[in-house]
Amino acid sequence: MEEIYAKFVSQKISKTRWRPLPPGSLQTAETFATGSWDNEENYVSLWSIGDFGNLDPDGGFEGDHQLLCDIRHHGDVMDLQFFDQERIVAASSTGCVTVLLHHPNNQTLSVSQQWTAAHYHTGPGSPSCSSAPCTGVVCSNPEIVTVGEDGRINLFRADHKEAVRTIDNADSSTLHAVTFLRTPEILTVNSIGQLKIWDFRQQGNEPSQILSLTGDRVPLHCVDRHPNQQHVVATGGQDGMLSIWDVRQGTMPVSLLKAHEAEMWEVHFHPSNPDHLFTCSEDGSLWHWDASTDVPEKSSLFHQGGRNSTFLSHSISNQANVHQSLISSWLSTDPAKDRIEITSLLPNRTLSVNSLDVLGPCLVCGTDAEAIYVTRQLFS
User: Of 148, 256, 300, 327, which is most buried by a Cβ count within 10 Å?
Assistant: First the structure.
């Protein structure tokens, strides 16, 4: 079992993100950002894990996540992404998108750029301009893409005052999350169970492709793209199911995996070890999914405090026509390989686990129980 440490921070944490390491760096992750929600005053904060987890001579653990700096944030932090080493993009429930700059010399955060009305409701039944929450952000320097409850997609560039491109009625329902597939292409998920692919090279306001969960229209809350195979994406939604999609094939998920008992809030492939995937849920759980095929005849068991419960996987489409060696372990339909090991990472159920992030051997997550959990030994 990985050692995992908690820190209580007196605010509900909506988002946690590791600061990216410089290219080619051999360090492990040391700094992470958090955003809060549903508090009288919300903050974006930067933390250092320092010498976290070093045993002191008495056998206790020294070190703690140290708060480096924070800045007040107007509205709930709906999403948070590092733009680069120094800048963080925060999405607000007020519809505002803010770029924050970290000054390491005096450990402060300041607002470097802001688009105050990036998302807003218009039309009959809404005031002349009522704000709509910005629900998701994705960054690929110099570009920042935002989505919102207003069904709008914005493409911003750092240091540009106005949006470079806006697709106003991209969706008639709420867009919940967004990721880049390839640089000009993004993928959004919405509240009626659809994935839509958008190509910024095309002038029109129509998606280039739509995929969906058949029949159910279960709201999707989160999406992540496989770091090496850009056609493979994972989504999670209101029913807690994990869906794996191959956007080159068909319009339905390749696998539907029975997962959490309540909403899945985030899903992340491990960036450098993508046979490993992590999910967190409203039900208070944080899971590590291991689909690596090098484990001999792995029994598909769910490990949690010694109890084992069997695990179910349905594979929908037949991948036989794809060259075997190119298949991601997530797309495999060979029953012998159709085994995924799931480990519960939190010692006991808590209130909702809203956010997680993984980088190298390190994981951080944030909860409604006003706690941040960190481990530096994911694969030990």
Answer: 148
- Structure letter (DSSP) for residue 206: S
Structural contact between residues 254 and 245, judged by C-beta atoms closer than 8 angstroms: yes
Residue 144 lies in a domain: no
Residue 307 lies in a domain: no
Q: 99-123 pLDDT, tens per residue?
A: 999 999 999 999 999 999 999 998 6
289 and 365, same structural domain?
yes
> Cα separation of 366 and 7, whole Å?
10
Structure tokens at 155: 């493409």
CATH label of the domain that carries residue 110: 2.130.10.10
Residues 222 and 272 both lie in one domain: no
Q: What is the pTM of this model?
A: 0.87
Total length of the chain: 380
Structural element, H or E, at residue 259? none
Q: How far apart are CA 273 and CA 255, in angstroms?
A: 20
98 in Cβ contact with 105 (< 8 Å): no
Q: What angle do CA 249, 255, 261 make, to 5 degrees?
A: 140
